[in-house]
Structure formats: structure tokens, C-alpha cells
């Protein structure tokens, strides 16, 4: 734990991965664990890890990178934190993100932008940019993230680390600050596939606090990764939409190399596959996720949570001024887009239509996965971009998510795995699996790594 804080002190002035450091508490806890002696059944005794700042931590400030929650200290722990506490982990601190996890660069944080440790002029991706940068900088071996439309996988791709979004329902969302509840899922960004498997195992499982959490048995993913793990005969689909002209040539080259490697390891690559609704994913996702967000964010009314405008004189002013001053531009954009899409006059034209597209996208996946084990392609069409280069143009920013959002619409598990470099910048391989089959994704990642 001391070494983790030493490393954070070395790197974080430049990288700015953390909003809040938990140094005093963490060192106290580590010392207590040293004194108690490490119990054999505690899987994480004294292991320092980081937590995205939209996951609530009892007694430790949780901001969602929003002015709205700048001084918010939760009175309870998220279920994932309870599970980690039960294994004696050490929480070193809370990592930066796009405000309420809305964004793809951490530039939407109300406080500061995180920098990519591979090139400090570039974004770390988002919205879990702080978590990915903390792992890439060597501060911690794992950091919790959330993924509504790619927020674990995209920053993992940009930072050359491993990020897995579990199947929807695998991990309890209790205590994750809600964005798009039918898409949100908590998962890990880690320095290795095996660490990811072990950590995800620990946070998975049914939870009475989350009706959508699944009672499926959680396999021993990590223990199943060993010298016998292989990909012989594994059927890998590479949809033609995943490597088309929209993908930067350097990225395509890295991915083709990775696929060749899987072929050498005995997998069967099938590139004669189409996912025709992929291109509708971004518009449909931004309507649906923003609709859910507009509803979830109603609770920030200046009364129940967080910020209240100091100059408000009437009840109406409390609502209007608190929300006007407490939310950033991107959050307001989504609330407006979502409220519009849900309004009586436009519901059928927007929300309902987008919901139908969601079904078509899920069917695309079902068709391909019925006779393939995995789907692969790039996580992003390009490597990390320059800070400031896209923030003024939301549509360009949204288009970065073209390959990640369909997975959330179908609720499937998917990983971004370091695959190589394009001009010195990391490129992630996107590995999508069948629902509740995280094991096959981990197996592929493990043999490739
Ligand atoms: N970039 C996407 C968005 O802005 C995904 C965010 C996320 O997964 N939290 O909505």
C-alpha cells in the first residue's frame, strides 16, 4: 500500500487519475491487516486497488466527477465494495471520470482532465479514464470501472490494459450511481487477464438490492486459467462491419495480426459474417441511454442530494438554479435529449424506434453467436486522441462508441485486450462473448496475453 502511494505521488501530478486519495485510512487498514496476520481465506488481504468515483464508498467522498456531488459522502457501501471489504482489499482512492460517466475522454469531469500515461497530451478515454490511467501508470493492479456503452473497454484500449464488462446482471449495480440502468454494469480494469478474472469473480453474484442481478452460479474463472487453457477449435466471428473503412489502417493491421495469432493457436476465424445493424447502434444508444439518464438524474433536485444553489429563493428556483449550476454541459445535453425522446409527442418517433433497433442489434448478436463462440474486432476505430481535439464536437465523440455500445444494448460480456501499437499508441482487441460466458473470453485473453 505504501508503494502504491509512492507510485501515485510519482505519477499523478502528470496523469491526474485520482479525484480523492484515501491515504490515511488505507495505510491504517494495511497496518491492521499486517498486525492481524493474513487469513488464508481472504483473497485480497492488503491488496491496494482503486475505485471509480461513481461507485459509492461509505465515509469516503463520492462525486461522480460532478459539481452536483462535489461534497457528497455516502453513508453506505456499494455491494461490490462490501464484497471487496470482505476479502480485506485496500481502497487507495477514487478515480476520475466523465461527469456521471457520460463521455469518452474524462474531459467532461467537472474537476480536471486525466492524461494518458502513454502520451500525456492525449486523453485516457472514458468514462473510466482515471481507473485505466491508474492501472497503466502502475499505481494499482486493478481499478473498478462502470460500462454503460464502452466506459470500461474504451479506456482499457487507449491505455494498454485489460478491461472486462461482465454480462448484464452478473454484478450487482447497487451503489453504482445510475446512468442508464438497463445498460450499466460494473467491472474491472486490470494489468492482466488472470487478475481480471479473479477480481470479477469476487464482485459477481446475485444481490437482493439489485433485482436485475442474476442468480447464475459464478464459475471459478481465474482457477480455470492454466497451462491447459487453449483456443483450439474455438469459432471466432469477425463481422465485416468491424473492420471496414471506418477503422484506421494502423488499428486494422494490429487487429489482423492478433487474429492471425489466434489462428496459429488453433482457433477458426470466420470473416464471412455480417452484423448489419451495427451502424444504428450509436444513434439508438444515445436516445435510450439519455432517456434513462434523464429519469435517473431527476433525483438531483437541490434537496435530496448534493449541491443546492445558494441564491435560490423559491422552490422552483431551488430546482432550476441547482440543476443549472450543478450539472455540466454534456449532462444537460443528455437530460434534454432524453426528456425530448420520452415526451408524449415524440416517444414513438424516437424512444420507441430506438428500442426496436435495440432488439435488432441483439438479434444480430444472437444470429452470429448461435454458431460462433466469440466475436472479435477492434475496441475503437482509432487510438487515443489529443486532449481538446473532439470535446467541442459531441457527434464526433459519440461516434467513437460505434463498436462498444451494441454490446451493452444486448447485455453481453466483452473485454478489451492489449493487442499491439499503432504509431506508439496502444490498440485494444474487442472480444465479445455469449451471455454469462465470461470464461471463454478470459480463456482467449489468457492464451493471447
Ligand atoms: N461514451 C459513452 C457515453 O458517453 C459510454 C459511457 C459509459 O459507458 N459510461 O455514453
TrEMBL record:
Keyword flag Nucleotide-binding: yes
GO molecular function: ATP binding; glutaminyl-tRNA synthase (glutamine-hydrolyzing) activity; transferase activity
Keywords: ATP-binding, Ligase, Nucleotide-binding, Protein biosynthesis, Transferase
Catalytic activity field: L-glutamyl-tRNA(Gln) + L-glutamine + ATP + H2O = L-glutaminyl-tRNA(Gln) + L-glutamate + ADP + phosphate + H(+)
BP GO annotations: translation
GO terms under cellular component: glutamyl-tRNA(Gln) amidotransferase complex
Amidase domain boundaries: 1-441
Family to which this protein belongs: Belongs to the amidase family. GatA subfamily.
Subunit structure: Heterotrimer of A, B and C subunits.
The protein, known as: Glutamyl-tRNA(Gln) amidotransferase subunit A
Organism name: Limosilactobacillus mucosae LM1
Amino acid at each position: 500500500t505504501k508503494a502504491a502511494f509512492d507510485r501515485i505521488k510519482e505519477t499523478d501530478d502528470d496523469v491526474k487519475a485520482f479525484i480523492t486519495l484515501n491515504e490515511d485510512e488505507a495505510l491504517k487498514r494495511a497496518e491492521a491487516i499486517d498486525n492481524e496476520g493474513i487469513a488464508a481465506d481472504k483473497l485480497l488481504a492488503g491488496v491496494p486497488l482503486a475505485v471509480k468515483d461513481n461507485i459509492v464508498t461509505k465515509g469516503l467522498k463520492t462525486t461522480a466527477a460532478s459539481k452536483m456531488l462535489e461534497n457528497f459522502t455516502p453513508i453506505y457501501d456499494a455491494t461490490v465494495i462490501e464484497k471487496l471489504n470482505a476479502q480485506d482489499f485496500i481502497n487507495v482512492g477514487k478515480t476520475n471520470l466523465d461527469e456521471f460517466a457520460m463521455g469518452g475522454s474524462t474531459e467532461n469531469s467537472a474537476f480536471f482532465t486525466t492524461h494518458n500515461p502513454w502520451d500525456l497530451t492525449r486523453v485516457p478515454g472514458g468514462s473510466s479514464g482515471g481507473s485505466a490511467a491508474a492501472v497503466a501508470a502502475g499505481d494499482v493492479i486493478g481499478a473498478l470501472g462502470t460500462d454503460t456503452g464502452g466506459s470500461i473497454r474504451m479506456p482499457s484500449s487507449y491505455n494498454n490494459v485489460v478491461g472486462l464488462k461482465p454480462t448484464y446482471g452478473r454484478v450487482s449495480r447497487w451503489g453504482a450511481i445510475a446512468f442508464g440502468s438497463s445498460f450499466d454494469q460494473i467491472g474491472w480494469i486490470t494489468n492482466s487477464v488472470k487478475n481480471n478474472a479473479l477480481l470479477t469473480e469476487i464482485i459477481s453474484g446475485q444481490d437482493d438490492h439489485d433485482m436485475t442481478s442474476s442468480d447464475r452460479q459464478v464459475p471459478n474463472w481465474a482457477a480455470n486459467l492454466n497451462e491447459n487453457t487453449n483456443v483450439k477449435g474455438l469459432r471466432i466471428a469477425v463481422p465485416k462491419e468491424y473492420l471496414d473503412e471506418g477503422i484506421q489502417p494502423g488499428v486494422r493491421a494490429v487487429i489482423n495480426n492478433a487474429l492471425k495469432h489466434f489462428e496459429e493457436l488453433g482457433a477458426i476465424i470466420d470473416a464471412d459474417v455480417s452484423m448489419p445493424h451495427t451502424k444504428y447502434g450509436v444513434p439508438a444508444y444515445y436516445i435510450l441511454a439519455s432517456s434513462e439518464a434523464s429519469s435517473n438524474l431527476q433525483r438531483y433536485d437541490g434537496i435530496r442530494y448534493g449541491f443546492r444553489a445558494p441564491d435560490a429563493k423559491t422552490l422552483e428556483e431551488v430546482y432550476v438554479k441547482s440543476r443549472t449550476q450543478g450539472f455540466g454541459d454534456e449532462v444537460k445535453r443528455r437530460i434534454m435529449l432524453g426528456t425530448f425522446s420520452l415526451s408524449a409527442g415524440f416517444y414513438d418517433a424516437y424512444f420507441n424506434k430506438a428500442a426496436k433497433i435495440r432488439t435488432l442489434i441483439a438479434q444480430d448478436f444472437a444470429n452470429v453467436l448461435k454458431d460462433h463462440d466469440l466475436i472479435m474486432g477492434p475496441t475503437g476505430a482509432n487510438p487515443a486522441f489529443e486532449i481538446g481535439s473532439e470535446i467541442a464536437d459531441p457527434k464526433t465523440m459519440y461516434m467513437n462508441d460505434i463498436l462498444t455500445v451494441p454490446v451493452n444494448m444486448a447485455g453481453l460480456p466483452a473485454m478489451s485486450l492489449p493487442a499491439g501499437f499503432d504509431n506508439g499508441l496502444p490498440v485494444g482487441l474487442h472480444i465479445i462473448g455469449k451471455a454469462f460466458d465470461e470464461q471463454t473470453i478470459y480463456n482467449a485473453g489468457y492464451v493471447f496475453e
